[in-house]
Amino acid sequence: MTPDKAVPSGLEANAYVKRNTDGKELSCSSAGGNGKVLPGQTS
User: Fold this and answer.
1) How many Å apart are CA 25 and CA 32, to the nearest integer?
2) CA-CA distances (angstroms) from residue 7 to 28, 34, 35, 36?
3) Tens of pLDDT along 1-43?
4) Considering just the CA atoms, what is the radius of gyration of the chain in Å?
5) Which end of the chain has a smaller Cβ tally under 10 Å, C or N?
6) How confident is the model at residue 1, as a pLDDT?
7) What are the residues facing 5 on neighbouring strands?
8) What is the 3-state secondary structure of the chain?
9) pTM above 0.85, yes or no
10) Distance in angstroms (rounded) separating the CA atoms of residues 22 and 8
11) What integer pLDDT is reported at residue 7 of this predicted model?
């Protein structure tokens, strides 16, 4: 998942995605993630 704009200052986000192929759930806190989407990030 990639936001189309940078996250604004003062806000944080997290996303959960469930793959149809195997049912695995992924989020910002999954392995390889940084825990949350921080201001200024776009990926």
Assistant:
1) 14
2) 14, 14, 14, 11
3) 667 778 788 877 787 889 999 999 988 888 887 788 777 877 6
4) 11
5) C
6) 62
7) none
8) CCCCCCCCCCCCECCEEECCCCCCEEECCCCCCCCCECCCCCC
9) no
10) 33
11) 77
